[in-house]
Structures are given as structure tokens and as C-alpha cells.
């Protein structure tokens, strides 16, 4: 199983990253419903590591916490205070905290694999995981709205109060598209495209570095130092993006739920 991305072919020429990197060959269980490529393996490893960390951090809770317990508690407090309760308030924040916390840490861990050596690609850079999480957020958004106001949720969402009746012919289609179609699509694409772009940039810089150092002639080898510096700089930037996109995904999920349970619905 090749977890590294090649940067140059046997002809010695430079070949940049392509979209084919997001569709790697099957390496396990080929020809079965459980076949897995390296991205699927990365996703499974991310989930296992996430569960192990939380299991170790919470299996023996102490008044004076261990380092792992403190780390886990800090992460949980961040999701609770800065996302769930900040957007939904204490009552609804506590109610939807498990969902929001799960989304935040799952997206975060799968994003971080994009900068981990020998993985080199985010588990969220292929549409499966972002789409699944967006569908879950969408279903919970509708569920929360219907449970809050069973008879008025869809009516108030499609026919906002205070709008002149004659304008509903324009407003209602716009509200339907923006609320029930655009939201899950943008939630999916925002996460996926950021991870795709980040991966392509990192592969481009480090592929160029390998090419200049090992295949270029003469003074052209000096360009490898520049691409190496840019590669490390974008690695740090990609770490920031990984955390930021996890935060934004969980935050938008909380915002959509808040809109569903708001009093006007």
C-alpha cells in the first residue's frame, strides 16, 4: 500500500498533483461490499484514534485530572462553551451537545490526517464523510424545527411572517432553495473543497521540492529550497485550516439548529 504521493515519473519530468489522487486503488477486501482504499483506511484509523483518546481520557475520571483527562476536558469544554451553549443557550446546547461535539472532533481528526506523514490526505477530502455529516445536520435541523413547532415550522420557513402576501410568489421559492437545498450542499462543499485545495497545494510544493533536488540540473536545484520553505509554511497553514473548518462545520450545524428552534418558528 503506497501512502506517499509520487512527484515525478520515470521520465524525470515534473508532474503535478491530479484529481486522481482522491480516487486511489482498492487495497483491502477488493470485490466485496467492504472494499477499502487508503482514504477509507485513513478514516477508520482516525475514528479508532479518536475513540482511544476519549476512552483513555474518560475511563477513570479524577478530581485532580491526569494530563490526558485535562486535554479531553479542555476539548469538550471548548465544544460546549464556544459552540453549543454560545449559539443554542444552556438548555438546547446541552440537548444537542453530543451531536455537535461528535461532528467537531470527527471532522478535526479527519482533517488533520492531511498533514500527518504517510497519510498525506484528509479523510474529509472525498465527498462521502462531508456529505454524510451534512445530511445528519440537515435531518437534525428539520427534526428540531418540527418538534419545536409541529404545525408551523415549514409554514414559517417558506412563508416568513410580515412579508406582503403578493411577494410570497418570489420569496417562497427563494426560501425553499436557500433553506432546504443550499444549506446542506454548501455545508458539504465548504469542508470538502478546503481539504482538496490544501492537499493539492501541499503535494505541489513537496513534489516540486523533490523534483528540483533530485531531477533538476545545475542551479535549478536551488529552487528546491524555496519550494521546501513554502511547503512547510503551507503545512502550518493547513493545520490552522483543519481546526478552523472543524469549528465552522460544528458552528454552522449549531446555527441551523438554533434557527429551527427559534421562537418565530
Give an overview of the whole structure:
By secondary structure, the protein is mainly α. The protein has one domain (19-261). 68% of the residues lie in helices and 2% in strands. It is built from 6 helices and 2 strands. A two-stranded antiparallel ribbon has the order 1-2. A hairpin with a 7-residue loop joins strand 1 (26-28) and strand 2. Helix 1 runs antiparallel to helix 2, helix 3 packs antiparallel against helix 5 (168-214) and helix 5 (168-214) packs antiparallel against helix 6 (223-261). The termini are far apart.
Taking pLDDT < 50 over at least 5 consecutive residues as the criterion, the unreliable ranges are 1-10
Number of domains: 1
- Main beta-sheet strand count, sense and barrel state: 2 strands, antiparallel
Alpha plus pi helix count: 6
Give the radius of gyration.
Answer: 23 Å
Spatial strand order of the main sheet: 1-2
Alpha carbon gap, first and last residue = 52 Å
User: What number is the mean pLDDT?
Assistant: 89
Instruction: Tally the beta strands.
Output: 2
Name the helicity range: 55-70%
Strand proportion: under 5%
Shape: globular
The oligomeric state of the chains shown is: single chain
The assigned structural class equals mainly alpha
| SSE pattern | EEHHHHHH
Protein traits:
single chain, 265 residues, mainly alpha, 6 helices, globular, disordered N terminus
Helix and strand layout, with pairings?
Layout: E1 26-28, E2 36-37, H1 38-58, H2 67-112, H3 128-148, H4 153-158, H5 168-214, H6 223-261
Antiparallel strand pairs: 1-2
Helix pairs in contact: 1-2, 2-6, 3-5, 3-6, 5-6
Amino acid at each position: 500500500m503506497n501512502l506517499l504521493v509520487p512527484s515525478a515519473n520515470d521520465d524525470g519530468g515534473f508532474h503535478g498533483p491530479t484529481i486522481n489522487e482522491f480516487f486511489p486503488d482498492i487495497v483491502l477486501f477488493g470485490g466485496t461490499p467492504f472494499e477499502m482504499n487508503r482514504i477509507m483506511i485513513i478514516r477508520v484509523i482516525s475514528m479508532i484514534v479518536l475513540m482511544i483518546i476519549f476512552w483513555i481520557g474518560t475511563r477513570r475520571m479524577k478530581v485532580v485530572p491526569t494530563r490526558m483527562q485535562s486535554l479531553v476536558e479542555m476539548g469538550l469544554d471548548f465544544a460546549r462553551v464556544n459552540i453549543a451553549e454560545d449559539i443554542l443557550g444552556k438548555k438546547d446546547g446541552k440537548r444537542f451537545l453530543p451531536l455537535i461535539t461528535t461532528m467537531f472532533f470527527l471532522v478535526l481528526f479527519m482533517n488533520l490526517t492531511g498533514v500527518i506523514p504517510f497519510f498525506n490526505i484528509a479523510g474529509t477530502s472525498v465527498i462521502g464523510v462531508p456529505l454524510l455529516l451534512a445530511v445528519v445536520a440537515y435531518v437534525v435541523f428539520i427534526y428540531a424545527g418540527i418538534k419545536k413547532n409541529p404545525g408551523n415550522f415549514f409554514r414559517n420557513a417558506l412563508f416568513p411572517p410580515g412579508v406582503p402576501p403578493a411577494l410570497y410568489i418570489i420569496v417562497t421559492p427563494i426560501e425553499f432553495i436557500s433553506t432546504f437545498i443550499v444549506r446542506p450542499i454548501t455545508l458539504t462543499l465548504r469542508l470538502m473543497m478546503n481539504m482538496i485545495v490544501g492537499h493539492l497545494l501541499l503535494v505541489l510544493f513537496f513534489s516540486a521540492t523533490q523534483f528540483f533536488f533530485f531531477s533538476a540540473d545545475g542551479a535549478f536545484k536551488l529552487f528546491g529550497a524555496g519550494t521546501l520553505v513554502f511547503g512547510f509554511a503551507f503545512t502550518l497553514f493547513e493545520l490552522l485550516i483543519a481546526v478552523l473548518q472543524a469549528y465552522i462545520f460544528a458552528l454552522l450545524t449549531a446555527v441551523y439548529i438554533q434557527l429551527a428552534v427559534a421562537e418565530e418558528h
